[in-house]
Amino acid sequence: MTLLQASKLGTETLSLAGIENAANESIWILESVIGKTRSEIIRIPSEEIGEDLLETYKEKLAERISGRPVQYILGKWEFYGREYYVNEGVLIPRPETEMLVDFALEYLKGRKNPVIVDLCAGTGCIGLTVASLIPDSQVYLVEKYDEAFAVLERNAEGVTNAKAVKGDIFDEKLISSLPQCDLLLSNPPYIRHADIPSLQSEVLREPLTALDAGEDGLEFYRTLGKIYGKICKGAAAFECGEDQGAALRELLPGSEIIKDCFGNDRMVVLKEL
Domain 76-271 - what CATH class? Predict the structure, then answer.
């Protein structure tokens, strides 16, 4: 079977299973299996794919049909133009979360040697992106769970101005050990416990520890607000749910709610309260 035929097979297979982005996902999976880019595949469509690789490709297509997110199948995903390793132990990076990086770059513009703390870091995509784009910064990324921390450490390799810290943000001793920072960032869990069963099936493949935020979805923001008062001398930006703005303004006096490009509440900002 040629690469072109394999790509068409993948598209048809995923389309029949109801995968909306079948054409792109089939080529992404094919790229990961054969170690060639889309442009390389296009240039050599008649090249034969070996039987072993074809079998692996079919197995990965079957995984996708079973509901496993394509990001976990690929083992990496793009965020802010950079690739980060992912697995079932971490939340998949999403475009809306890039708003936190945008805020960080604007807020820290012109500041020398800023210190940034990224809480509930997961893959580290937020803090590590900021660290990469602000070379004179020092970024501390805090993650509690073993599997997620392993991914964070892997993503942090080579980022010399970033430090992964293993710990729980509810641990006051840990928080006290962190330095005073110019900016506090977090994409915390913010889904109400009762809403978890109604999430899309693919989202439910992601770690519940990165989603479930208790009865009202605000459990983490209560602690984040306290942490801000303890260790931050500048601003904080936290991702939030699309209907949480009013509750967060009440919970965090003086906060500002920033909407995303779809007009939904997406980020809560605190500045020098």
Answer: alpha beta
